[in-house]
Amino acid sequence: GARLCRPCCRDVLASMRGGAARCRECRARLPSQAAGLCAACLRRRLRLGRCVAAFDYLMPGDWLIQRYKGGQPALAHALGALMAQAWRRERPMMAAWLVPVPASAQALRRRGFNPAAELAQVAGDWLGLPVARWGLRRRRARAPQTGRSRRARWRGLRGVFEADPALAGQAVLVVDDVLTTGATAQTGGGALRGGAGRSQDAGAGLAQ
To answer: Pairing with 77, which of 9, 13, 15, 128 sits 20 to 30 Å away (CA)?
Structure first.
């Protein structure tokens, strides 16, 4: 039924327990208990209002995401619920639109669905928040991000997204499936701020 039992949930969320120090920008684990920024964010700050990750990209969570994006969209029920629970833990409820990162035409043809959009819909149902599936649109295609360097990821996303003006002035939560360098969330948030009247935005990755 695409649900996770409690022991499996504990396994997926195990790395989030214990109070490990995390980067205050991207939520990546830090090598010591010193609070601050990771090395990547010291080089380039994300400048999002808030960044929330449901779990780390480690076994068995990474396996679930790979299965989900590999053609099992029903897993959105379990993964979207974990995303909603993480948002509730990180901050109080607020009025917001959930805006999924739009998939490329090539990825839609390959998978048949947009992973971020399905996660946003499930999380929105859990949180009682509306989902603006067309809040971000792609202005042009970009090269696949997987396997690219941090600098190449940022460079390849310049000018990719445009925002729906109907979201002007709204508090917006940008939803993606995996947060790696943060380039996608930052670019989407930037489009919302600039193209939709400086909306307040946060980034939410299912996995960090």
So the answer is: 15
pLDDT tens for the 208 residues of the chain, in order: 678 999 999 999 998 887 788 888 888 888 876 668 888 888 777 667 778 889 999 999 999 999 999 989 999 999 999 999 999 887 766 778 999 999 888 888 999 999 999 999 999 999 999 999 999 998 865 555 455 555 655 555 666 888 899 888 888 889 999 988 778 888 888 888 876 545 556 777 776 6
Distance of alpha carbon 5 from the chain centroid: 23
- Alpha-carbon distances, residue 93 vs 126, 135, 150, 173 (angstroms): 12, 21, 32, 12
Burial class (CB in 10 A: 0-12, 13-18, 19+), 24: middle
Rounded distance, CA 67 to CA 73, Å?
A: 9
* Stretch (H or E) spanning 109: helix 105-111
Please report, in angstroms and rounded to a whole number, the separation of the first and last CA atoms in the chain: 25
Q: How far, in Å, CA of 12 to CA of 9, rounded?
A: 5
According to DSSP, the residues that pair with 100 across neighbouring strands are 175
Query: 58 near 89, Cβ under 8 Å?
Result: no
59/64 Cα distance (integer angstroms): 9
Report yes or no: 16 and 30 within 8 Å, Cβ to Cβ: no
